[in-house]
Design brief:
There is one protein chain. The chain has two domains: 181 residues, Glutaredoxin; 134 residues, Serine Threonine Protein Phosphatase 5, Tetratricopeptide repeat, CATH 1.25.40. The chain is built from twelve helices and five strands. Helix 9 runs antiparallel to helix 10. It is elongated. The protein starts with 48 loop residues before the first strand and ends with a helix. InterPro entries: Thioredoxin-like_sf, Thioredoxin_domain, TPR-like_helical_dom_sf. Pfam families: Thioredoxin, TPR_20. It comes from Nocardioides eburneus. This is Tetratricopeptide repeat protein.
Length: 318
């Protein structure tokens, strides 16, 4: 398959699409985290594959703002080879751990998308980035080895252009009676933590954050791993005694806050550092503030205790 260079044509015209129907409360939209991705007649599933319909098309386009989306148009009934292409693209995209997202469009089930994209035949494949096609449409179904070479060349082009974002994995529902599929991004870090190798876990999370600074889950994982690293081998009673004897010792207070958080005393940890922010000044005050923000990330920015902690920090600062 001939390599096609990236270009920057105009954005996709969505005017042919109807306004998406509202999902039932609590239901996951197709392609959203929590939905099962099944493509090419339900035969292609994975953490980086999504079956695209009118309701999910806009969110898939928005996903291309983070990293490329390989959009495949197929019709199982009219073109079996197009369904094969959909499955193969899904297979290859999964091998890249978020570098690409495979978006599979059954034009029989979603004719309005085909209309919006002016699809005249299948199979057809586009690569989208920043909401726009960045290659010419590819009207063929190359063998999977050629697809792998194509993806590899695209990855090299992305790296050369300084584009290093990655997609977050879609949650794939496990069959009844089986364990849920784990998040593949964190496999190496989880394995390191399970073996007690905190340094390696920190390094693995740092790689994920460097590849995609907007990945809040990876940032939270990094903050938790760093917390474990800071508190390794610390004597809790000695740390508390030192903090009690030196209430304005920033390092002593921060260490006890870390230990409190690790022990599940989240609000105590936050309150200790908020109070220290009130008393400290200059560089020390900024160091405490930054450490507290890191603890917020470790707990999770949507946690109600974090929301209260942020308000308390704002009050202490201003």
């Amino acid at each position: 398959m001939t390599q096609q260079p990236f270009s920057r044509p105009g954005a996709i015209d969505l005017s042919a699409l109807k306004r998406p129907a509202q999902s039932a409360p609590g239901a996951a939209a197709p392609g959203a985290p929590g939905a099962t991705a099944g493509g090419a007649g339900g035969q292609a599933t994975g953490a980086y594959t999504v079956e695209v319909d009118e309701q999910s098309f806009q969110s898939v386009l928005e996903s291309s703002m983070t990293a490329p989306v390989v959009l495949v148009f197929y019709s199982p009934g009219r073109s079996p080879e197009s369904a094969d292409l959909a499955r193969n693209v899904s297979t290859v995209a999964e091998e890249y751990d978020g570098r690409f997202l495979a978006g599979l469009v059954d034009i029989d089930a979603s004719p309005q998308i085909a209309q919006a994209m002016q699809i005249q035949q299948v199979p057809l494949m586009y690569v989208l980035l920043d909401g726009r096609p960045v290659t010419q449409p590819i009207p063929s179904a190359p063998p999977i080895d050629e697809l792998r070479a194509f993806f590899n060349q695209l990855g090299q082009q992305l790296t050369a252009q300084g584009i290093g974002g990655r997609h977050k994995p879609r949650t794939v529902e496990a069959p009844e009676g089986e364990e849920p599929v784990s998040d593949p991004r964190f496999a190496a870090a989880d394995e390191a933590l399970a073996s007690g190798d905190v340094d390696t876990a920190v390094a693995e999370y740092e790689k994920l954050v460097a590849a995609n600074p907007a990945d809040t889950e990876a940032a939270a994982g990094l903050a938790r791993a760093q917390l474990l690293k800071r508190t390794q081998g610390v004597d809790l009673n000695a740390a508390r005694a030192a903090a009690a004897a030196n209430p304005d010792d920033v390092e002593a207070q921060i260490l006890v806050a870390d230990l409190d958080l690790l022990g599940g005393h989240v609000e105590d940890a936050f309150a200790r550092l908020v109070e220290l922010v009130r008393r400290a000044s200059g560089d020390e005050r900024n160091a405490v503030r930054e450490h507290l923000v890191a603890l917020f990330a470790a707990v999770g920015n949507d946690d109600p205790r974090v929301l209260k902690g942020r308000q308390a920090l704002a009050n202490a600062l201003f």
